[in-house]
Amino acid sequence: MSVRIRLQRIGRPKRPYYRVVAIDQRAKRNGKPIEILGQYDPILVENKLSVKMERFNYWIKTGAKPSDTVASLIKKQQPAE
Questions:
Q1: CA atoms of 59 and 35, how far apart (whole Å)
Q2: Going by CATH, does the domain composed of 3-77 fall within 3.30.1320.10?
């Protein structure tokens, strides 16, 4: 089973809201996730993304691959060093 970290839409029409989930890559967009890692609200001005980074890093170490969107969101969230 190949695991992906991707967004799962749970918002109502014209009001998107997403969960960041670890899920089998063959599952449907709104299929049952293995684990919920956080949430993403594109409408908010501040704190759009909240992710449990210790669990995110755990899944990355076990071989899960983030989707392009999740990878870019995490990269933007990381403080500049």
A1: 10
A2: yes
Q: Is the dihedral of CA 22, 25, 29, 31 positive or negative?
A: negative
Q: Where are the domains of the chain?
A: 3-77
Q: Tens digit of pLDDT for each residue in 18-68?
A: 999 999 989 887 889 999 999 999 998 777 899 999 999 999 999 999 999
CA separation for the pair 49, 20 (Å, rounded) = 9
In angstroms, the Cα distances linking 22 to 38, 63, 71 are 10, 11, 13
Distance from C-alpha of 66 to C-alpha of 59, rounded to nearest angstrom: 9
| Strands 65-66 and 35-40, sheet pairing | unpaired
DSSP 17-30: -EEEEEEETTS-TT
